[in-house]
Structures are given as C-alpha cells and as structure tokens.
Hints:
Elements: E1 10-14, H1 18-25, E2 52-61, E3 71-73, H2 81-90, H3 92-104, H4 111-125, E4 146-152, E5 158-164, H5 165-168, H6 182-208, H7 212-234, H8 243-253, E6 260-264, E7 270-280, H9 283-299, E8 307-315, E9 328-336
Parallel strand pairs: 2-5, 3-6, 4-8
Antiparallel strand pairs: 1-9, 2-7, 4-5, 6-7, 8-9
Helix pairs in contact: 1-8, 2-4, 3-4, 4-6, 6-7
Amino acid sequence: xxxxxxxxxxxxxxxxxxxxxxxxxxxxxxxxxxxxxxxxxxxxxxxxxxxxxxxxxxxxxxxxxxxxxxxxxxxxxxxxxxxxxxxxxxxxxxxxxxxxxxxxxxxxxxxxxxxxxxxxxxxxxxxxxxxxxxxxxxxxxxxxxxxxxxxxxxxxxxxxxxxxxxxxxxxxxxxxxxxxxxxxxxxxxxxxxxxxxxxxxxxxxxxxxxxxxxxxxxxxxxxxxxxxxxxxxxxxxxxxxxxxxxxxxxxxxxxxxxxxxxxxxxxxxxxxxxxxxxxxxxxxxxxxxxxxxxxxxxxxxxxxxxxxxxxxxxxxxxxxxxxxxxxxxxxxxxxxx
Length: 337
C-alpha cells in the first residue's frame, strides 16, 4: 500500500477477497411498501426503486475466547480427518457401485469406480500449502495505521472494510496464496490429468471389453453423475460449502452487537469481523451515508494516528499470482490524515 496525497490516485489489487465474498453472499431483505390513503389525506411514501445497504466491516485481532458456532476454521493448514471423510462421502455412490461390481461380476473393471476417490485422497495428502493468517503483532499495535477500503460489490450494496493495517492488509495481499513447491505442483497437475482420463478410459473399456450388463451399469452411472453435477451447479450448492458462505451465514443470523464472525487458524490466531449494516432507499442515499461515516471516522481519529482511505472495485479476474480463481479488487488510495 502506497501513501499518496489526496489529489492523486494509486491503484493496487486485492489478492484475496474472503470477507468481500462473504458480504456478497448476504441477501438484502425485501420489504413491502405501504400505500397511501386518499380518503384520509395521507400521501404514499417516497417510491423506493433501488433499496440497498451500506456494509461497514471492522477487522481486528482478538485473544478472547470465541463462540465456536460463530467461528470459521480456515483450511490453510494440513489436511484434517474431516476433509478426508468429506472426500469419501462425496464419492460414496461410486464406492458402492464399485463394491457391487466386485460382488456381482468379480471384475477388475471395478477399479474405474474406485479410481476417482483414490486420486482425490492422494491429492489431499499432497496438497499445496498456503499462506496462513499473520501472527498478531506483539508491540506498537496501537500506533498502526487505520486502513479503510471502499469496495464496489456490484449490486450487493456498499462495503467499507476498516481496521489496523496488520489485521486488514493481509486479506488484500497474500492470505491464502499457494506457497511454491514444484514437486507438489507437478504432482497435483498429474492427478488432474489422471482424473480427466477416467471417463475416456471407462468409455473405451465399456465399448471393447466390458460384458453387456456392465456396459449398461457404466452408462447409467455416467448419466446419474452428469445429472447430479448439473443439479449441484444450477442450485449453487457449490457456493454453500465455502468459507465465505459460512461467514455470510453467521453475519446474517446475527443482530447489532451479535453480528460478529471469527476466522481462526490451527495455531489459534483469530481475526474478528464485526459487521454493521445500514439499509438505505437508493444509491445516492447510500453514498451520502458512507461519506458521512468516513468523515466522522477521520474527524474522530486520535491525534498523531494515521488514517488512510482507499477505494476499490471487485472484478471477475482470476488471481494471477496465486494460480487459483479468486476475484481481484482494484484499490485506489486517495487520502491520508
């Protein structure tokens, strides 16, 4: 992050949008607009055409004991038993069919159904490690800059992310990025190629060597897997099992001071996210609320403490440095007090 005078704009990119994606998952409630009564002389209220929300997210480290129901464990560390169990459960249909093929046909073609779960388990044990949460600074935390990032969430309201630099900036830089390991990277690519070959190899075997009954079973399983995949995608279930979705659920279920969520790593380092949501009737009103809030924060900053603002935009650009698909945020610093 570069310091700059208020008259200039310096752009940068967010490398992890975990909290931003969590806010985007929270729905804006729909309220019925009451009608006026001409007989009683009451006028209808001002028409609300674009109800939106101003989200103010404050990030900070915490050493307090946190509520487990409001805590999301990050998946940056080593693979857990829960992850392995989830992989096996997601492939349970293929495992059952493979066991049936072994029991009924006593055929080595059962390997075709066991291969995906075996490759996924192997991938879990050779996963690429990622950057974890930064350790909380032990000294001079009170003297850190207060960072503010105004984020354009494209149809999901306004978002202002603020907090001390040590807590906030890691989510705009390298949190969650892969740690380079050439051997593991090559191994992961090889596993992806092998998973891609499972279907053509199975098709070739069904056309040439499989008995007729096993051919029908293989074809029926492929039709089932295809329909299950499309149902899973179109119902967006793949978004409900992510860390941002869980954080959004915690935020949405909280009210006022209870609208807090915690992100915790395996070492116990915990970042608290405290969310304030202000509903407004239109875009212009939201801009005004956000502008007034930022002005109050600048006016109320302790003497001698730097207070830096920024503006940002969320884009559909894949993360370039990480090699994974993550939205980037264009950040523009525009003032410092």
